[in-house]
Amino acid sequence: MIGKIATSLLSSAVTAGLAVANAEAADKVIYQLDWLPGGDKAPIYVCIEMGFCSEAGLEVTIESGRGSSEAITKLATGNSDIGSAGLGAVMAAKATEDVPVTAVMSIFNKGPHAFYTLAGNGMEEIADVKGKTVATSPFTESNVYLPLVLKDLGMSESDITLTKADPGALGPMLMTGASDVIIAWLTDLSRYQGQANQAGKELVVLPWSAAGLDLYSAALVASDTFLEERPEVAKRFIAAFRKSVEFSKENPAEAAKAVAAMVPELQVENVEGSLRDALVLIFNEVTEKDGLGAFEPDRLKATWERVAQAQGFDLGALDPETAVDRSFLPGD
């Protein structure tokens, strides 16, 4: 009996020792968010909570963020290793400052920008925005592309009445008629739909892609130092992240629970709604043609052309291929 107890204790000690050794062996990675936690950020929380990161030998911590510019700065300065940011912001930063960051995987292969309005407001198609009052958040990336969308429609900002308001005020402004239209992301569709339902209104959503704004948006972006000094860690992380994206598509309810488990102030149903909204920007006809996470050269070039037009850059200021590195994607 004593021998069995001793054997059991020895086995437990060995198991504990292996666990400690594995924990010590895990490569530490700092993931940088470009905005607040939510359903559209689900894959990184899934990677941690569901064990995909740990299975890849990674110990991942998440840093909060307040926009792509801040995220890019933190990556460029080495405060974080890899994270999410708008590809357009990456291109602009590289064109002006040659920042040492590189996009390694597409997350949203479509732009999330859209006009939201209500049935009865006289907007059945995107061109009907002419003459309308439009409210937007002061800091949204959509404001950069608005002039291009209007130009594609044969208009300018003088053809609308544009006001800027706190993001939290946009929904109420639309529902009460204080604004005919608001500019918001497709990742917020469920939230605005809920507000419309409560107000007894019918929501109308007009994506800017309908006006020809086809471009890459959110991307997985890494510090060049991280890619150069720890390439194998980067490959393992990207493979685990992509696995988490695929899990989120197949199991949105479980993915939402994973986010809420790590960010308890979020409600599971709200996270799931936002995740489902975001999934259409990840999995769509572009994904079917080019593959998950891919940067197709022509679409990449078109994205840079749009960024350059929107921000007044010379097209020769950047070779868009220098903003991405496809070699870290699984199978490449």
From TrEMBL:
Domain SsuA/THI5-like: from-to ranges: 42-255
Signal sequence segment: 1-25
Keyword Signal: yes
Keywords, in A-Z order: Signal
InterPro entries (UniProt xref): NMT1/THI5, SsuA/THI5
Taxonomy, superkingdom: Bacteria
Recorded coiled-coil stretches: none
Name assigned to this protein: ABC transporter substrate-binding protein
Organism: Chelativorans intermedius
